[in-house]
Write a structure and sequence with these properties.
By secondary structure, the protein is of the alpha/beta class. β7, α7 and β8 form a beta-alpha-beta unit.
Amino acid sequence: MISKGIFPTMVTPFNGNGNIDYGALLKFIEKLESDGADGLFAVCQSSEMFNLTLDEKFRLASFVRENSKLQVITSGHTQKDPKKQIEAMKKIASSGVDAVVLISNAFAAEDEDDDVFIKRLEYFLINFKEEIPLGIYECPYPYKRLVTDKTLEYILSTKRFVFLKDTSCDVATMASRLSIIGDSPFGLYNANIETLAETMRHGAAGFSGIHANVSTKLVRCLLDFPPAGSAIGNKAQVIAEEFAEYLRHSFYPVSVKAMLMELGIFNSISTRVLDHNLISDSIISKGSELLQRIKVIENEYDKESKM
């Protein structure tokens, strides 16, 4: 069973040589824990998993598992060949994490239908015999494949899955999925902070998105003080929407790494997916301004939650 609540999709710190900065990663884990995360999503697109070797993915997952008291889930599912997918995910599972997360677009091309998806997922499940809970992740890269009702029903029927990272960004879609999920132990975790409060009312299990890397407390505020009936919740919703809009146009993940540098967590904005030197001063300045406003909400949340 995976905890309900907040599972930040962790960004990976790199040092000047392009290697994973495990000292900064430890500080990052400690920050996320102290700010109220319920679990950690350690190897995902935000972690630059498509630009990590299998050994790096394994060591990254292992390090987070060994250095966190929270539940740790991880993907690293970037292989195209079915047999290589199985071999790789067996290695990832051996890191000791609490769940292995598969990406939905790995089982069918963009022009292939649900039957192909189900057939290939079935092949994976038959050959992946590790007794570890599984998740499914609607990863936007290399293309976003949303889980249909048909594939969701199949996933639930296997009784091996406990987690869905939903990237539909659509309340009606999530509400429909939640009606299919019902009271099963399978949880839907919304990646879209703007719709989070509304989807929680429909029964979502929590949040798993990029915004919690910078401020888990901002997300926690939306969960603990729903905007519909709370002044601080309304403030948090406004900032959350501005933050989401910023990240959509901000040279992510470099922008988030710059914010984490300002917080004293990361030592570098280095990344493997983009040329981090191309981030503009205006983007960094806007991020710094947002960070200060987020801190105000965090302080208000701390006071409100103690009352």
